[in-house]
Amino acid sequence: MECMGENIGEDCGVVAIYSKKGADVAPLLVNALFTLQHRGQDAAGIAVSDGKEIRVKKGLGLVNFVFNDGVDAIVGHKGIGHVRYPTEGTTTINDVQPLFDGYGNAIAHNGHIANYCDFMKERGYSFNSSSDSEVFLEHLKNGKSIKRGVKELMEVLEGSFSVVALIDHRMVAFRDSMAIRPLVWGENEEFVCIASETTALDVNNIPFKGDIKGGEFAIVEDGKLSRYQLVAESPFYCIFEYIYFARPDSTINGKTVYLVREEFGRTLADIAPVDADVVVPVPDTSRPAANAFAERLGIPYREGLIKNRYSSRTFIMPTQEMREEAVRLKLNAIQDILRGKRVVLFDDSIVRGTTIEGIVRMVRNAGAREVHLRITCPPIIGPCFRGVNMKTHEELIANLLSVEEMGKVFGVDSISFLPLKELKRSLGLNICAECIGGDYLSKYVEMLAKKKKRAERVRDARIRLMEKVGRR
Q1: Residue 5: its pLDDT value, please?
Q2: pLDDT tens figures, 288-334
Q3: I want to staple 301 with a disulfide (CB 3.0 to 4.6 A). Which of 211, 223, 239, 294 is the partner?
Q4: Is 208 helix (H, G, I), strand (E, B) or coil?
Q5: β-pair type (78-84, 224-229)
Q6: Taking a C-beta distance cutoff of 8 angstroms, is the pair 230, 203 a contact?
Q7: What gap in Å lies between CA 438 and CA 388, rounded to an integer?
Q8: Given 204, 235, 266, which residue is the final one in a domain?
Q9: Rounded to whole angstroms, how far apart are CA atoms 299 and 333?
Q10: Same domain assignment for residues 224 and 90
Q11: 3-state SS, residue 406
């Protein structure tokens, strides 16, 4: 199988659990995956070791579908799990994680490796799936020191990775030096757990202890967690974790996501106030920020858009057609809340713009007199090479249009984004803002961005959008 290169791009959820008393961990892994379902709805799986054999169960679909017949046969006291974020193209069972070599090694990876094709070819490794995560399995299964192998990967891989693995039946975890993707850990008298978010600890009553640091390697042996700083940490946390991906009840990198989103809302109220009758969030992730915005300005906060609880997250759907159809299935407006009102419509981010355009139309059709759009993420102008499904310049509406032009396309009376400087101040952490500021963190990724832009038809995409502006 050949390298699929830039077709890959995902942000997923991972978990690893070790039982100090020899209990089967499969039920706890499934519990954890339920709490991480928002991070990936395409596929799910677990791999569990009893020290002699690894048993794997995985499949396409949601967690409750993959494990609907239970996990009684998946025995073992240590294991890993994964939920997968949809990508372009068709997902096959070979792409579903954990990846397993058929012996004593399995891995689950959250992130994206931008140079994995080059690395795999240089080392002579074979491709058995379309997943960049294969680089970890191929490099670490070859009998070398695990720590040395991980350190080599940390020093040469470009992108992002938070990884949990069973290597020669030993449970390990590690995180890239920039700590772009989250990875937390917790422990009690019975279990050690490492996961993408603290919700995976909470559901299993395992107290949160802290974050696996960037450049850090952790291994659990004989019931004891040992941690080693293999390369220096230079954190650039992904801002999308706080804006969109993570659950609001999670704590990552020392910050409670809900409180961070509230601060974004207060800051936006200070710099972009508006006279309005009601603040309406686009459910679900914008709710904390919208509520804080409303409180700051003394405007009533109402749930004017109701979400179908059985719909999927539109941003992480693989095709534009699916995203557009999902808006119609996902949301319905309450006319009695919106009719005749000056509405502040509050959302977390705008990537392609088609979703919010449909929502604004829905609010207008419900009788809103004015629609003012407020967005907690700054305009996104560049593709991501570190794990967020934003692959091209030409699909990013803020790369094609000015803020004023976007307002005309969306059909709103005013539009304001939280500026990058104010976002950084509100969060209080060093962040990766490659997609927002356009300044890439490495020469290799900058080269990929420039190469991609030269190959795209950005001018044509802008012309199509400007024609839409002209019709308004």
Answers
A1: 44
A2: 999 999 999 999 999 999 998 776 555 555 555 665 566 778 899 99
A3: 294
A4: strand
A5: unpaired
A6: no
A7: 15
A8: 235
A9: 19
A10: yes
A11: helix
CA atoms in the 13 A half-sphere facing the CB of 147? 11
Domain end marker among 235, 260, 278: 235
> What are the tens digits of pLDDT across the range 371-394?
999 999 999 999 888 888 787 888
Q: Is the pTM of this model over 0.85?
A: yes
Same domain, 287 and 434: yes
Task: Name the token pair of 435.
Answer: 């997609």
322/6 Cα distance (integer angstroms): 21
Contact yes or no for 173/164 (Cβ under 8 A): yes
Instruction: Check: CB of residue 392 under 8 Å from CB of residue 340.
Output: no
**d(Cα 49, Cα 81) in Å, to the nearest integer?**
12
3-state secondary structure of 467: helix
CA distance 358 to 180: 32
pLDDT of residue 317: 54
Q: Is 12 a catalytic residue?
A: yes
Domain match, 74 and 138 both: yes
Burial of 1 (C-beta count, 10 Å sphere; 0-12/13-18/19+): exposed
Which residues of the chain carry a pLDDT beneath 70? 1-11, 86-90, 143, 311-326, 457-472
Same domain for 382 and 433?
Answer: yes
Range of the domain at 333: 241-471
Neighbours of 350 (CB within 10 A): 23
Q: Which of the residues 12, 117, 384, 435 is marked catalytic?
A: 12
Count: domains in the chain: 2
